[in-house]
TrEMBL record:
Keywords of this entry: Coiled coil
Presence of keyword Transcription: no
Entry keyword Zinc: no
UniProt similarity note: Belongs to the SNAPIN family.
Organism: Acrasis kona
Pfam families recorded: Snapin_Pallidin
Cellular component terms (Gene Ontology): BLOC-1 complex; BORC complex
Region (Disordered): 138-183
Start-end of Basic and acidic residues biased regions: 138-148, 170-183
InterPro entries documented for this protein: Snapin, Snapin/Pallidin/Snn1
GO molecular function: SNARE binding
Protein name: Biogenesis of lysosome-related organelles complex 1 subunit 7
Amino acid sequence: MTTEQPEKSLTTGLLHIFEPFAGEYEKRIHDVQLAQADLADRIEAMSKVLTSCLTEAEFVDVSAYLKKLVESRKKIVAVASTLNNINDRLGRLNKMAQNKYPEMVKLRQVRQEKLKQGNNTDVNEVKPVVEEKNAVTEVVKDESKPDPNEEVGVTEVEKNINDAPETNVEEQKPIEEETKQEE
């Protein structure tokens, strides 16, 4: 025996062992290539169908509706901002009213006691400042200590309202008016 013969027989034996696996893998690779070619053909056919649908279809122009939606959203944001400002102001007014109510009750009690005692109270001492919807706000003035920052005819509530941040109401038209104008 020569040394070439055992190598040849080993090679031949290995080829016989791996030949079924190689044949199977080769068949599978060929099947995958056929499937890919079939898939490419189907993709091409679908592309042609979609292209024809795209050219034949008439789409509705929604840009006008989108603009209206954007404008409506802006209006809603403006109204929400206005309502938030109003709510903040009402909260501040309510807090001020809660703080001033005990003072008003005390002033009324003092006034009633003085009236019951028969004392003529000085007009400058107890003076009605604002009368609105059955509510009377009274302020006791001490003539010996005039307030240099006091504005004549302006109540504390009006000062606080004037100090609140302002919103331009003219810029914020009601939504119904603007929609009527657009039509």
